[in-house]
Amino acid sequence: MRCLLSIIALAGLTGCIATPPMAPKLDVPAKPLLTKSVYQLSYSTELESARIKSVQLPAHPVKSGNTVYIDTSKVSMTDTLRKQIIQLLKDKGLTVVAQRSSDYHLVVQQLDLSFGKDKVYVLNKPEDPHPYIAELAQTIPSKQCSNIVASLSMRLTHKSSSDVIWFAKSSINSAGYQGIPLQFTFTETEKVTNEHAVVSFIVEQNQEEARRARYNQAVEIPPYRVEAQISPLVKTAGACNKTEVSALTSDMMHHLSRGLIEKLNVLL
């Protein structure tokens, strides 16, 4: 019996000595702190404000409370613009009526919207340019945008005498109406591009055979590779294509109407 126990102990000792030692398992290294930055850039063009010409004759002074009939027979006017003009006249103290037997007739002579020559917007150079903006300065130094010209003219006629006592006209293009540059943003996001390779290396090195092979040997874990990825440009302000510019026309006409009627002198 004593002999049998000795044989078993000797066999266990021989098994321990025969098993090669293994290096400890490797941990997956923590990923570096990644950043995300948003950059802005803009394109500008020469801007023209509304040109207004207004002449009022003193023969028949317009007074607060006078009635006005709006004659739109020469133009095609939306209901929205008509309501806006009515409100502008009311704000001047005039009374808008539906009868032609009013004190005055406001005749809308011209109401035009037409596409003009495209406007060229040029990239504004920032003080501390990002490399991507410097690249854009070479590849997209300018942008061409659709341009709509709005024109409006009116005259006020004294009903009983048929005298024209006020006439005014104005025009503006869509770029001048906006009065702002085209504004864009892009996002620069840092990303680890070899995470899968690093994790695969750790998994491989943590196999028993690999741990035995690297016992008492230093192992260099592949470092993470970080690359910056840049998003496409996103426009955040400014109308440029035909659809965007066309959407401005209603407000442009309201703007011209307000500018003209403000020039009309109404006595209190």
From TrEMBL:
Keyword terms, alphabetized: Signal
Lineage start: Bacteria, Pseudomonadati, Pseudomonadota, Gammaproteobacteria, Alteromonadales
Domain of life assignment: Bacteria
Name of protein: Uncharacterized protein
PROSITE patterns for the chain: PROKAR_LIPOPROTEIN
Signal peptide: 1-18
